[in-house]
Recover the amino acids of this structure.
DNA sequence: ATTTTATATAGATAACAATCTATGTAGGGT
DNA sequence: ACCCTACATAGATTGTTATCTATATAAAAT
């Protein structure tokens, strides 16, 4: 019984014959001619080496071996239908897995998207990596993830990007700070105080420093802390002032206030970045689709800046060129 | 995903690649060249429409879709291996089903073979039909069974036969019968008494009557009973005398004795009959093989007459001409 | 006995599977 | 920079599958 003489097609035909009980009827159902089905059957019998059907009362009934082959064929064909379903689910982004890498600051917002997405697609497994900008760039170079979230994309030579959220940087001070009462403050006035800064390699710090440079300002005393949370708590405790993403502040923040510094907030946007030299997993694509459609329901309207449709259009265009 | 582009061979190759983790190694294992395997893989990827493998650290790992295909392939190939095992069992006569039709008298002996056979081959289902010779002939004409047991075969045009057991017919009388003391009796002396006979259509009756005819004798008073048991009990109760198969008598039969009639026992043999125009089921063939080998262990030696090897040789010769 | 219906066989063909050899290319290791 | 190994592509060949039309045969129905 050489397995090479079996084809799925042959099994399909056989199943149709057993199910209908006649060769001609099976041929009709399969949109084949009767001799075609007869031949297939003959080949199958040869391949098995046993009679498979016997004719009684004008109908074909499977023999012992025939019944077992019928069972086997049904199972095998069924298994392939299942596989096909699995593929469809995979393609529809309903199942599968993807990984996403976030810059630290984005971790305050992304769960608002990831949570509902995983409710809607419970079969999709997501891995989230978090680190500062420099670490994310390394992951990006090494192609370790499906999606990346940056505020400023790396070279777009091998990547496509789509903005989805405003990320304003604001100056913050502890409640009761002397400058708090003022209506308008100049950044230069702040620089006399100690500034709490993120580590080098952080996107927030990079943005802040390049803004300062544009303004021709330089930092005075600083204190470096490698965490937005630590800085927020530090500011609240009077350790100094800071420039932070507004997303870092909790909805209610009675112990901290935002200073009305001229030129602030520093505007930036988070974007989803996709490597264009690497095929995007269906699950990741599914997440982007979900984000495009549900972003407005998941984040505060004032931060909205949804340019994901354009990204998706670009991706799907690529997809269609095989 | 057109199922026609999948072949079992393709799946075999794919499984080998996933299992070994490299194309070249799989090629070696399959005794193929590396490009052949590469090509197969390419075709499979096309057929599925998704990438199946990705290379990491110099080894190939299945993607999401690839893993599922691997699972499906293993199951499918496994199912076919099972089917192959099933076929082997069927061919070896270890499983399957057959039916056998016995003339009444043989029912006293055949269980001695059928019992041990079904111990040895518990997966084989046997159906036993019992009736008188005429009924068996009808079943034979209609090709209703795989095996038949007759003492005299029907026309051997469409059948092969093999003797396996002596079936001597003896004259019996109740214990204490006047003729019992005699050393030698003539059948003519018995015919004065009432003879208990089986129904017309019975093999025992047919044999007895044709023997009588040869001897130029005719029956006197008779009484007809359609069962060997009834006749045996009838004789024991003094209802008359009878000529019966010796097999009908229980091992101990204190109330009945065998008369030393000249010319008796009437010798006949039971035979297994197989239609030669109908393919014999493996299970039935298995039973014949079993009978050929174990007959001596299953029946009393004095009845042995095993010519089954010749029958089997004839059958297997046919088998080999397809 | 004749017609209808179901199945099998023959002969033909286009497409494809399965395989090879030869050659090109890319990723790791020294 | 170079080499080895693994993988991919190209081109060719052989055999098989899948399918058809036309026709013969067997079985059932009238």
């Amino acid at each position: 019984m050489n397995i090479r003489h079996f084809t799925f097609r042959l099994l399909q035909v056989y199943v149709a014959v057993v199910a209908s009980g006649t060769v001609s009827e099976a041929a009709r159902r399969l949109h084949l001619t009767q001799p075609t089905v007869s031949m297939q059957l003959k080949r199958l019998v040869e391949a098995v080496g046993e009679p498979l059907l016997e004719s009684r009362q004008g109908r074909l009934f499977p023999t012992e071996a025939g019944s077992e082959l019928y069972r086997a064929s049904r199972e095998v064909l069924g298994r392939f239908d299942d596989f096909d379903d699995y593929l469809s689910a995979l393609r529809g982004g309903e199942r599968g897995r993807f990984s996403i890498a976030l810059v630290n600051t984005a971790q305050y917002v992304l769960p608002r998207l990831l949570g509902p997405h995983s409710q809607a697609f419970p079969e999709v497994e997501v891995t989230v990596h978090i680190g500062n900008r420099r670490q994310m760039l390394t992951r990006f170079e090494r192609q370790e993830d499906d999606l990346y979230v940056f505020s400023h994309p790396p070279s777009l030579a091998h990547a496509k990007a789509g903005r989805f959220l405003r990320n304003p940087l604001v100056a913050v001070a502890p409640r009761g700070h002397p400058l708090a009462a003022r209506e308008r403050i100049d950044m230069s006035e702040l620089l006399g105080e100690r500034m709490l800064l993120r580590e080098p390699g952080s996107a927030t710090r990079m943005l802040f420093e390049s803004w300062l440079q544009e303004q021709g300002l330089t930092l005075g005393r600083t204190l470096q802390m490698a965490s937005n949370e630590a800085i927020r708590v530090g500011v609240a405790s009077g350790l100094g002032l800071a420039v932070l993403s507004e997303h870092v502040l909790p909805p209610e923040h009675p112990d901290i206030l935002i200073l009305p510094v001229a030129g602030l907030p520093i505007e930036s946007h988070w974007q989803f970045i996709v490597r264009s030299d690497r095929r995007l997993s269906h699950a990741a694509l599914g997440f982007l689709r979900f984000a495009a459609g549900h972003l407005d329901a998941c984040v505060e309207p004032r931060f909205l800046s949804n340019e994901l449709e354009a990204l998706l259009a670009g991706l799907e265009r690529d997809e269609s060129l095989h």
